[in-house]
Amino acid sequence: MDMSEQLATERRARLAAEKLLEQKKSELYDANRQLSVKARVLSREIAHTQEGLESARSEAQEMRERYVNAQESLQNAESAITIAERRLWDSLETIRDG
Description:
By secondary structure, this protein is mostly helical. It has one helix spanning 3-97.
């Protein structure tokens, strides 16, 4: 193989390598763009999920407070019932005793 054939072969190989490099650059650019889009979508989904979680926590706290208030009201009602029942029995005893 003479020098001109060798140079032509090397030139073709270099051009093929450059073409492959450009193709890979383009593929990498597209892949990065797609990853960027997916990252933005995931970020929005995470933000939405966090908002939902915060809302659920807030609702759970509100329900705990309602539960505590209901328990306190129930205890107060039970105390009032006990007092009323005791007074009723005392009144009945007084009526019987004349």
